[in-house]
Amino acid sequence: MTNNSYPSYPSHYRPRTPTGWIALVSFLALMCLAEPPFVTSWANRVEPWILGMPFLYAYLLFVYLALIGVLLWAQKRGL
Prior knowledge:
79 residues
């Protein structure tokens, strides 16, 4: 038997706004770029050197900074 007097709230795991969905999808897409098999098949190389770092390290630095940027953007928007 269910108690209908208690209000039903939507899940807090799913974004409620279009901006929230943009943040979620962009974060997940960037996270996929930082995980195998993409890193091990495409970005796992030493040449070319970028800013004195091998390509793999520069690539991962860029992806991680983009992930942090998405999180800061979402926090600023109050998502």
